[in-house]
DNA sequence: GTTGAGCGTT
């Protein structure tokens, strides 16, 4: 919606939509309007908002009446720091004036061949559908929405540090899939589809197949009544966590042969024989 | 209070 108080897009016949990226989440259309209006006749300013939270998604669409003004705004406002963030102004790929592009050829007046090295790979820009966000059990192979990261942030908030480690212009989007794979890899270790829901009973779960043969009869010959055969002491765990904060694993004790041996031997606290 | 890749509504 635009701040024009109009329902939907205004009279779009020869309007040229500009895509403003990297805008702050707090930046509103009213903030962008005077900025873009200075360089041309802005027909409408639209900022897609989140369906749930209603917050800005981080980009906006500015409709210009004339393409020459729009392009001028692109050159002028592109890279301009707005609200402490450097925005990126580009011609929208889709939209009211997109038919000019979809006609079969890029009739868009935007010169991508310019110094803009923003040309990124034609990745699937299909965002996670709103209803899909609820059913995350879907193949997350292509799920890389920020919503997915939110759920991971609960147990792994390190993702941000790694993400920010690299330059924002580095790889530009392609590098993100790398982390996605990493996440999935770990998820596969202790789960299948839902990484958040891990088996609360490690004893029930099949042990490391790399160590012991997957014999069904040998699964659990001894009725261990202790569901928590953890040998790691809290104090030691804390120190280890501080050092291995980089390569911390969600379930290091389950895959550790040392722990398995200890648990297999006897879950009872035999301090005299343990040493 | 927030993330930061990214293309849109009645």
TrEMBL record:
Ranges for domain RRM come to 16-94
**What GO cellular-component annotations does this UniProt entry give?**
nucleus
Region described as Disordered? 103-275
Query: What Gene3D superfamilies does the annotation carry?
Result: 3.30.70.330
Any one Pfam family match given in the protein's UniProt record, by short name: RRM_1
Which SUPFAM superfamilies does this one have? RNA-binding domain, RBD
GO annotation, biological process: mRNA processing; RNA splicing
Q: GO MF terms on file?
A: RNA binding
Task: Please list the residue ranges that the record marks as compositionally biased, kind Basic and acidic residues.
Answer: 103-114, 145-159, 166-184
Source organism superkingdom: Eukaryota
Q: Which UniProt keywords apply?
A: mRNA processing, mRNA splicing, Nucleus, Phosphoprotein, RNA-binding
Q: Where is the composition biased (Low complexity)?
A: 190-237
Instruction: Name the residue ranges with Basic residues bias.
Output: 115-128
Q: Where in the cell is it found?
A: Nucleus
The family database entries (InterPro entries) matched by this protein are listed as: Nucleotide-bd_a/b_plait_sf, RBD_domain_sf, RNA-bind/splicing_reg, RRM_dom, RRM_euk-type
* Protein name according to UniProt: RRM domain-containing protein
Q: Which organism is it from?
A: Anisodus acutangulus
């Amino acid at each position: 919606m635009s701040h024009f108080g109009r329902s939907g897009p205004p009279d779009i016949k020869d309007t040229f939509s500009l895509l403003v990226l990297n805008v702050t989440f707090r930046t509103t259309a009213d903030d962008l309007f005077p900025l873009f209006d200075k360089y041309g006749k802005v027909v409408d300013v639209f900022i897609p908002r989140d369906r749930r939270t209603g917050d800005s998604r981080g980009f906006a669409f500015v409709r210009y009446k004339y393409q020459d003004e729009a392009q001028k705004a692109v050159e002028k406002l592109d890279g301009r720091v707005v609200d402490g963030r450097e925005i990126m102004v580009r011609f929208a790929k889709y939209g009211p004036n997109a038919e000019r592009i979809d006609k079969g050829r890029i009739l868009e007046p935007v010169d991508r061949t310019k110094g803009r090295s923003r040309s990124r790979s034609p990745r699937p820009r299909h965002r996670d559908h709103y209803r899909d966000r609820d059913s995350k059990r879907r193949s997350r192979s292509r799920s890389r929405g920020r919503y997915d990261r939110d759920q991971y942030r609960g147990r792994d908030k390190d993702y941000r540090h790694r993400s920010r480690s690299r330059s924002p212009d580095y790889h530009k989007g392609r590098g993100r899939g790398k982390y996605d794979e990493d996440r999935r890899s770990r998820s596969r270790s202790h789960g299948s589809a839902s990484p958040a829901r891990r088996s609360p009973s490690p004893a029930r779960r099949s042990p490391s197949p790399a160590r012991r043969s997957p014999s069904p009869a040998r699964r659990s010959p001894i009725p261990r009544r202790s569901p928590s055969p953890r040998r790691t002491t809290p104090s030691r765990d804390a120190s280890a966590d501080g050092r291995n904060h980089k390569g911390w694993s969600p379930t290091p004790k389950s895959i550790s042969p040392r722990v398995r041996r200890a648990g297999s031997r006897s879950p009872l606290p035999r301090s005299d024989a343990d040493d």
